[in-house]
Amino acid sequence: MIYYDYRFMEVAEPIIEHEQYQQMKKIKHHDESVYDHSIKVAFYAYQLAYNHNLDWESTIRGALLHDFFLYKFEKRFSIGIVSDSIKHAIEHPKIAFENASKYFDLNEKEENIIKGHMFPFGLPKSKEAWIVSYVDKYIASFEYASNFIKMIGRKPAYSTK
Ligand SMILES: [Fe+2]
Ligand SMILES: [Fe+2]
Predict the structure, then answer these.
(1) How far apart are the CA of 82 and the centre of ligand 1, in A?
(2) How remote is the CA of residue 91 from the centroid of ligand 1, in Å?
(3) Which of the chain's ends, N or C, has fewer CB atoms near its CB within 10 Å?
(4) How far is the CA of 95 from the centre of ligand 2 (A)?
(5) Backbone angle region of 153, left / alpha / beta, with phi > 0 → left and psi within -120 to 50 → alpha
């Protein structure tokens, strides 16, 4: 159980509570929902940014919205899987930004955190954007591993369930 501190919640709450943001609970991503994944990325990225005296507020907002693409990505087990995955990797940051800018006022740094998070398909232009890109990949690798272990029917060694 992660304890989200008041500083994080003060910035995150207006976004998390938004009706459109809540839709992400229904979209599965790696091993959980896009909603859970995005909040986790935002919280760990915030801690790194805060501890390094960086712009932690933009880090939270950009990270929360980095995967705000609002569609269910289905990998098809066919010849198209590679091209589908690459297409999704390239396009979803742009779609996430288009969606995010409809509902929230974003600064330039937040825009680049979203658009650049899929490095090398995008380019992070600030330390905050690099942090989000790194934390996203780090967390996604655990989520993929957990999903894979479930698929082959074994519990991960660190599972408490
Ligand atoms: Fe993403
Ligand atoms: Fe992500």
Answers:
(1) 16
(2) 9
(3) N
(4) 13
(5) left
pTM (2 decimals)?
A: 0.88
Distance from Cα 102 to the centre of ligand 2, integer Å: 20
Q: How many whole angstroms separate alpha carbon 150 and alpha carbon 79? A: 24
Structural domains of the chain, ranges and CATH numbers in brackets? 6-151 (1.10.3210)
User: HSE on the CB side for 20, CA within 13 Å?
Assistant: 15
| Region for residue 122 given its phi and psi (left: phi exceeds 0; alpha: psi -120 to 50; beta: otherwise) | beta
The one-letter amino acid at 20? Q
pLDDT tens for 89-121 read 999 999 999 999 999 999 999 999 999 999 999
Helix (H, G, I), strand (E, B) or coil at 33: strand
> Comparing C-alpha atoms, which of 71, 50, 69, 49 is closest to residue 129?
49
Ion ligand 1: residues, Cβ under 5 Å: 67
Dihedral of CA 142/31/71/56: which sign? negative
